[in-house]
Design goal:
This protein is mostly beta strands. It is built from no helices and 31 strands. Strands 20, 21, 22, 23 and 24 form a five-stranded antiparallel beta sheet that branches. It has a four-stranded antiparallel beta sheet with strand order 1-31-30-29, with no helix packed on it. Strand 26 and strand 27 form a beta hairpin. The chain is globular. The protein starts with a strand and ends in a 14-residue tail after the last strand.
């Protein structure tokens, strides 16, 4: 791989979105901002959101939709690696937000779904209908934790409904190329799960012993201690999962039969997206060291997203 560092000094970056002008819009979770990184590495704050802006995606209206987890508490490991260790002391609650890129206006859309208070919204993906699936990772404290779930909302709606709840630490979320399979990555068990989509925001659920009705695609491939974070999908439907601790990118085929690992120099490889004219550039957030990198020669092009800006 040819790794190109674009920017450093970011404060736990996540949620990269490749823009048509060559820049990358991302969140800085520890800084509480939505930021733009230009191709020459300059960093510009677009919106000061507070809390813990986590996942980001372009909606059908051209705005950026944000999963805000309410904030983490951090510690620094030897070597300066920043890592989250639980709920922030000034935790401000989970919510979904919208940022108008033209004006910088921030709009808080909702903080509940089906009467459930959102605890730590993490990642989101838009479907062809203009709605979006999002995960709630839950929240961890010293003595207990909140379980999360998967949800679905339409832009302009006053709330969301639960697709699957409760679920253990759902993190990255993605759709197959035909939109008929909904995937999510489970952080704690490094597991990849899948649902059959039957309609916008609706899935077919398997019976017990599936814990939440999903099909298990893969579980901690390679037998390493690792945790799964966010993910992207390539043109063939393979899942590229940002992998924590066993730092790098885990590539999993749609049937889970083939897995490979591409190591990267950060234990907190947290998120990735495809960009460039041919979608062969992979942008990756290395959050522990605060960097955004690009891999310009990824062997398989990415799957085009439903909406871009």
């Amino acid at each position: 791989m040819k790794i190109r560092e674009i920017a450093s000094g970011l404060q736990f970056p996540e949620g990269p979105v490749a823009m048509s002008d060559g820049s990358v819009v991302l969140v800085e979770i520890a800084r509480g901002t939505l930021s733009r990184v230009t191709p020459d590495g300059r960093i510009h704050v677009l919106a000061a959101l507070g809390g813990g802006p986590n996942g980001a995606a372009i909606g059908p209206d051209g705005a950026v939709y944000i999963c805000n987890n309410g904030g983490f508490r951090y510690t620094s490991n030897p070597g300066g690696c920043l890592r989250p260790i639980g709920q922030a002391d000034d935790y401000s609650g989970g919510r979904i937000e919208r940022v108008n890129l033209a004006t910088g206006r921030i709009e808080r859309l909702f903080d509940k779904a089906d009467g459930l208070t959102l605890r730590g919204p993490n990642d989101l993906v838009f479907d062809a209908h203009g709605g979006f699936y999002f995960t709630d990772l839950g929240k961890v404290r010293e003595e207990d934790m909140d379980r999360g779930g998967l949800f679905y909302a339409m832009p302009g709606a006053q709330g969301a409904h639960a697709v699957a709840h409760p679920a253990m630490t759902p993190n990255g979320v993605a759709l197959s190329p035909d939109g008929q399979t909904l995937y999510y990555a489970e952080t704690e068990g490094a597991r990849l799960w899948a649902f059959e989509v039957t309609g916008p925001g609706e899935v077919r659920k398997l019976p017990w012993p599936s814990p939440q009705g999903a099909r298990l695609v893969a579980a901690s491939p390679g037998g390493h201690y690792q945790r799964f974070d966010s993910m992207a999908v390539d043109a063939f439907g393979n899942l590229l999962v940002a992998t924590l601790l066993h730092g790098g990118i885990t590539v999993i085929s749609p049937d889970g039969q083939h897995c490979s690992h591409w190591p990267l120099p950060d234990q907190f490889t947290t998120n990735l997206c495809f960009g460039g004219q041919d979608l062969r550039t992979l942008y990756v957030t290395l959050s522990g060291s605060g960097r955004l990198i690009a891999i310009d020669d990824w062997p398989v092009p990415g799957l085009p997203l439903c909406f871009n800006a």
